[in-house]
Amino acid sequence: MLIVGNGRLFTRDGSLPYIENGAVAIEGTKIAEVGDAKAIKEKYKDAEYIDAKGGVIMPSFINTHEHIYSAMARGLSIQGYNPQGFLDILDGQWWTIDRRLTLEQTRYSAMDTMISCIRNGVTTIFDHHASFGHIKGSLFAIAEAAKELGVRACLCYEVSDRDGMDKAKESVMENAEFIRYAQKDNADMLAGMMGMHAQFTISDATMELAAANKPEGVGYHIHVAEGVEDLHDCLKKYGKRIVDRLMDWEILGEKTLLGHCIYINSHEMDLIKETDTMVVHNPESNMGNACGCPPTMELVRRGILVGLGTDGYTHDMTESYKVANVLHKHHLCDANAAWGEVPKMLFENNAAIAGRYFQAPLGVLKEGAAADVIVVDYDPPTRLDAGNLNGHILFGMTGRDVVATIGNGKVLMKDREVKVADVSEVMAKCREESAKLWKSING
User: Fold this and answer.
1) What CATH superfamily classification does 2-60+361-417 receive?
2) What is the Cα–Cα distance from 9 to 52, expressed in whole angstroms?
3) CB-count exposure of residue 96 (10 Å: 0-12, 13-18, 19+)
4) Which end of the chain is less congested by CB atoms within 10 angstroms, N or C?
5) What is d(CA 1, CA 32) in angstroms, rounded to the nearest whole number?
6) φ and ψ at 94, to 5 degrees?
7) 361-373 burial string, b = 16+ CB within 10 Å, else e?
8) 137: left (phi over 0), alpha (psi -120 to 50) or beta
């Protein structure tokens, strides 16, 4: 048994949202009970105890769109790189990196990303991977890191024709093999999807290949209309809009996750809604790549299941929350925009998206839910209660305020010390591998 107690407990459970001095009792991988700290501690006298020291106890975060392969880009300057638009950014930076990633570099990119996730209180990620220099086994290398570090992961490889049909086929098979592997894993910690880059790099032949090899029970994870170039390509080549093309290939559906959706219209929103397809918003990336602001508030208003991700820009979900909040206020010239929509995306919709791939309830602290719990070192100068927690997170917290992270009942970090890896050793290896990668790019 494990108890996390002596803190302000926010459960995200509508039947019992807040306990002033609360505790969470954990047995195995599930939450056994939530309640008053004194009563819980008295009931489970022999349990290991994590003292929140008056801080905030709440469910850990979920990130519904990550890019592990970008980890070794930090600080990299690529010779001759001078992008004039989104396609230049993709080819000049991201595709340049992923074409040179070795299997070992993919593994350590995953280790770095997941350690950062743990430090920021994130215990579940949906990753969209690319390493066209070494495709086969890449998802399994990431999964190995996820198992070692105790992070729940839904993985996919981004299928693309950009480096030729042979690699497109290899990408499809990597997805299919990993999905079957994850489906046999009974720990409820791994899942797989059929990943796709974006429609503008995927031919009809590759669409057909992916559909023919996708195992039952999963959907697709694909970038949609991230840049206007994607839309223009689809209109020119196929005479239809992107979501229509995906509909024709039976890609839409309740298990499919569409990234970005910036340049979509009302008709496409109707298709997304009617097919119960999921969307993930990545505000910081959209701004950083100058791609534009998606109609996210309208998607939420229509009842489409829209989650919040980081696109690899950061591993701190509070940062994505803050950026989304100001982006939509600024874009809509409406100071009242995003107050309710963005926290709904982060705290409710991300959990609902994860619920389509993992069995245990996530994003909530209640009996029977996955034991994913964080403690935040936070002592505000103003009143804090169930009615204003989101405002405190938005304006008072960052991911690095997390001092303890429990994932699936396992203590991943305590007193800001990561317990599941020798971080110094991992970072030394990351620096060694990133130096090799940078040399392969710049010589």
Assistant:
1) Urease, subunit C, domain 1 (2.30.40.10)
2) 10
3) middle
4) C
5) 9
6) -70, -45
7) bbbbbbeebbbbb
8) left
Nearest to 128 by CA among 224, 269, 243, 208: 224
443 Cβ partners below 8 Å, 6+ apart? 79
- pTM of the predicted model as reported, rounded to 2 decimal places: 0.98
The fold of 61-354 is TIM Barrel (3.20.20)
Sorted by sequence, the CB contacts under 8 Å of residue 382 that are 6+ apart come out as none
Confidence of residue 254 (pLDDT cuts 50, 70, 90): very high
Strand partners, 35: 23
Residue reference for tokens 């009996």 = 367
Mean pLDDT score, 109-115: 98
User: Residue 282 in 3-state DSSP?
Assistant: coil
- Which part of the chain is CATH 2.30.40.10? 2-60+361-417
Residue 415 dihedral angles phi and psi, to the nearest 5°: 50, 40
Q: 222-236, pLDDT tens digit by residue?
A: 999 999 999 999 999
What confidence score (pLDDT) does residue 116 get? 98
Residue 239 is encoded by which pair of tokens? 């005479």
CA distance 361 to 350: 11
Identity of the residue numbered 166: D
Residue where the block lists tokens 């995200």: 12
The ranges of the chain annotated as CATH 3.20.20.140 are 61-354
Per the listing, tokens 């689809």 go with 234
The bridge status of strand 194-198 relative to strand 18-27 is unpaired
Total residues found in the chain within this entry: 443
**Residues in contact with 306: Cβ distance below 8 Å, sequence separation at least 6, in sequence order:** 278, 279, 280, 281, 296, 299, 300, 345, 349
CA angle 364, 188, 218 (to 5 degrees): 100
Residue 160 buriedness (CB in 10 A; 0-12 / 13-18 / 19+): buried
